Amino acid sequence: MAGNDLGSLLGGLLGGGSGGQAGGGGGGNILGALLGALMGGGGAAGAQGAGGGNNPLGGLMDMLSKSGLADQAQSWIGTGDNKPVSGAQIAEALPDDTLQQVAQQAGVSPQEAADQIAESLPDAVDKLSPAGSIPSGSLEDIIRQQNL
Known about the structure:
Blueprint lengths: L1 H14 L5 H20 L4 H7 L5 H21 L9 H7 L2 H11 L3 H19 L10 H8 L2
Helix pairs in contact: 1-2, 1-8, 2-6, 2-7, 3-4, 4-5, 4-7, 5-7, 6-7
């Protein structure tokens, strides 16, 4: 499935081959599940419409911005320091059905999923937007371009 493919790609991007398997790999898997859910189902219609069919990143950023996290989301895309976000903020920003789907795929509680997303998402978005804007094209292509 797309979520598993995205998870392995994001895991490589976040892990970078350094020994941080738990943080990088786990973060990649949870983000892969999230982006897969946004591309394919549940409460994804808004994110998919805003972000394009193969690249839900723009829709996710729009969703976070509309939930009061515009400063944090913009800091991840920009070239400065990444502002942190909490699991509670992520849980509030995402549709409940999307978070439930991600948690189920990852085998964790919705709160654990939100916490993992909050930990991994800023770094992932930062790495996926090196020019200070969300690149166009399919998400898989964008990840592969960054995964040197």
